[in-house]
Amino acid sequence: MRMTIMRALAAGLLTAAASFGSAWAGGIPAGYPSSYADLVKAAKAEGAVSIYTSTDSAQAKALLEAFSAKYPGIKIEYNDLGTNGTYNRVISEAAAGQVGADVVWSSAMDLQMALATDNYIDLYVSPEAKALPAWASYKDMLYAATVEPIGMIYNTKALPEASVPKTRADLIKFLNDNRDTLRGKVATFDPEKSGSGFLHHTNDARATSTFWDLAKAFGAAGGRTYSSSGSMKETVVSGENVLAFNIIGSYALDWVKQSPNLGVAFGTDYTPAFSRVLAITKGAPHPNAAKLFIDFALSRDGQNALASNGLPSVRTDTDKGFNLATLNERVGGNLKPIALDEDLLEYMKPQVRVEFFKKWKASLAGS
Amino acid sequence: MATNVDNSPAVTSGSWVQPAARPPYLRRRLDAAPFRIGVIGTLAIAVLGPVGLIVYQSFLDGPFFSPRSQLSLDAYRYILSDPSFYEALGTTVLFAFGMVAVAVPLGSILAFLLTRTDIKAKKLLEILVLMPMFISSIVLAFGYTVAIGPSGFVSIFFRETIGFVPWNLYSLGGLIAIAGLSHVPHVYLYVSSAMRNLPSDLEEAARSTGAGIWRVSRDVTLPMVLPALVFAASLNILLGFETFGIPLVLGDPNGIMVLTTYIYKLTTLFGVPTYQLMAVVAMVLVLITLPLVYFQRRILRHSRRYAALGGKGGRTTSLKLGRGGQVLALSLIGLWLFVAVVLPIGGITLRAFVDAWGQGVNLMDHLTLANFDNLMSVPSLFRGILNTVLLSVVGGAIAVLIYLLVGLAGHRNTGLSNTVLDYIVLLPRALPGLVIGLAFFWVFLFVPLLTPLRPTLVSLFVAYVVVGLSYGLRLLQGTLIQVGPELEEAARTTGATLGRTWRDIVIPIVRPGLVGAWALIMIIFLREYATGVYLMSSGTEVIGSLMVSLLQTGAMDTIAALAFISILLTAGGLTLALRLGAKVHD
Predict the structure, then answer these.
(1) Contact check, Cβ <8 Å, B446/A238
(2) Which residue of A has its CA nearest to B550?
(3) CA of A208, closest CA in chain B: separation in Å?
(4) Which of A193, A198, A228 lies nearest to residue B553, judging by beta carbons?
(5) A78 touches chain B (CB under 8 A)
(6) Which pLDDT tens digit goes with each residue over A204-253?
(7) Model pTM?
(8) Matching CATH number, A2-147+275-333, of 3.40.190.10, 3.10.25.10, 3.40.1440.60, 3.30.920.30
(9) Where are chain A's structural domains?
(10) Under the phi-then-psi rule, with left for phi > 0, alpha for psi from -120 to 50, and beta for the rest, what region is A366?
(11) Which of A199, B121, B352, B400 has its CA 20 to 30 A from that of B419?
């Protein structure tokens, strides 16, 4: 354990040094309004920021440590509740008049959009918003903090790199051609059980014309569905499944570093990407600290911290891990981030949802 | 489901054991009435509040806190016309009965071997056979995946030696086998305490007329413990209806769904929460399980007649197994222990120390301690371990005191309030821990004076006490009932009040029993995972619920490390329990 502590200390020192070195004019980052010092002061007086999120604390560690190093007086209360847990808790607490979250940070882009349009989110114009692409924010309420490619993992012992499908059409053909050898050994998200899986699949259904062909090919190969990327990785690493598609590729880029028998691939014709979306709750107990946290998470330092933990930056001027530009290169040049707009709400309508599930089940059953 | 090792209603209190020992009723005096009514009333509020909320929620068309929600039967209509619901219901019934078919025969055989025969290493085995009961079923499920899943180390060994793997862990049959094997101790506990008190003269008579040992067990022993068997079977059906961890993990790949995982799925199905649908399924579970519990109470009443057949004072002598019998019996138990304990614990231990496994992976190359790094450096995980220990050790002690108060309120209480107490205790048993946790989350969110307690461990503690109520109370009632009524009567005739009698006579006598109960409650709280899923927040994380929430992203490295820690803590708790002389056997 001593190693761990040493490493944590070293990381803390590094980030502290980094933030010291960044451009601060009179304690205010360059490009920030001059009144920002008041915001920092007010946030420090609040002394805490409470975050409801779907991101594992291990993955947010670098960001949280960097924030604490920069603003030592502000304690972070980090609640990893999952996507649905986050949404449920925010609306329950709002109804009870007991708002506990300052910042809601969730990968369920659709649920975050629902919170924004249903009046649970406060307005805030982040000075960092200028550095983000236009699709990455919504009406001064929602800000995308990451851009994470949706891709495929495969077992390198069962599937040599040369035969890995490169495009969506290849994947469909591959599933159809190898139907018998792949039987029961292909995996993807179960959209009924996983909010992320639902987003990935429905986004495909909206953005491509071949999604249902893929679903049918998957069904015909006796594919199996899972409720998390991690459990799919476990089965692909162990050889139980040969490949898993539409999984969270940012995790996969990290996993392949440790597991020699795991490979990752992205569609060169089309690689969708989702974002973890930040927002400030209406009635937040620590509104100033919340603003400070969002600004920091979107800043170059914050984005570098996230990217160093495997969550690629939505900016293009960061140098750790992947950023929007380098990621696009890595996945073959056709990165298509899911935009933060009201189209996300389409699949929140119960009717549309039920229709989607029906069609999904029918495709899997082979009709 | 998650918590209770044992679902029997509190009223059972080990009364198989003392046939026909009903004490003469103490004069009912009013001096205990305020205490009884106070305790039972408080308990009623703590249980009926959240349960009532669930009932109310099931009759609405939206979350109960939404101003737009109205009274409606839509939720019932939706659930009762959803094919997935019936599929889940059917699977649950198969699952529960399948579990009984595996657990009851095995548990009875174990009980017979350990109580009626001269099997070797009896003392050690009596402890070992209970092991599966103390491991959280979610940990078991993860362990089995690594051991005997399609790419588990045992499966790979089979594939390499005989060319194929003769089982499929992710099938309904696989789930039933795993659940059945891990519920053997629940059957063993009941049947063994019934068998232990049977006088052996009847068996000896049969032996002396030349009947073989299996004939004796079938024609003599079995009929006499039949009520215990029926009781254990109904208990297992009850447990089967509420199992969550095993189907959550092992049912996922092939989409096998039972009612509890169907509830869990309802949280994501519509994107936004559909509490009314979850509440309806919870109601269905209550409607199925309450009659079962009622049925258990009835068997229990009859059992007294059965057990009285033997009379008292019969000396028990052991049947001789003989050399071949010993070998056969010991290898049977050994095989079962290997499958039910060694495989899952081995699996999870292995997974906790490697970063890759499966076909073609040399585990030696992947040994690592890195999985444990996060536990120390990520505050929430580290807190989760501390909180779990705190909640089990300190919370367990306070819980025992609470159960003692409740136990005293029901002690030698023959009034109406005791019947009320019985049913209050049963109610939380009939609901999945996940739903109870959610109901308590609401209670702590919307009841004005309670809101400051929500972000503290107190909220989890209260929910745990309610979820563990039936088991805890049964432990304490079992202890209280052993106090000879004549001691209490002596005190009363010399003019002591009931309170004084309890304080000066009953409590000092049961004190060793309390310590044992504390250790057992500690283990129950350690292994709990479902109740905290909705209730925990930053600062109140617990290991079990952390594993469920980590499962959403699938951080298996961290989950395995947490599961390993959980097993270590349980082992520590169990050692302590045995040191303190906990009577694991009822």
Answers:
(1) no
(2) A56
(3) 22
(4) A228
(5) yes
(6) 999 999 999 999 999 999 999 998 888 899 889 888 899 999 999 999 99
(7) 0.83
(8) 3.40.190.10
(9) 2-147+275-333, 149-273+343-365
(10) left
(11) B400
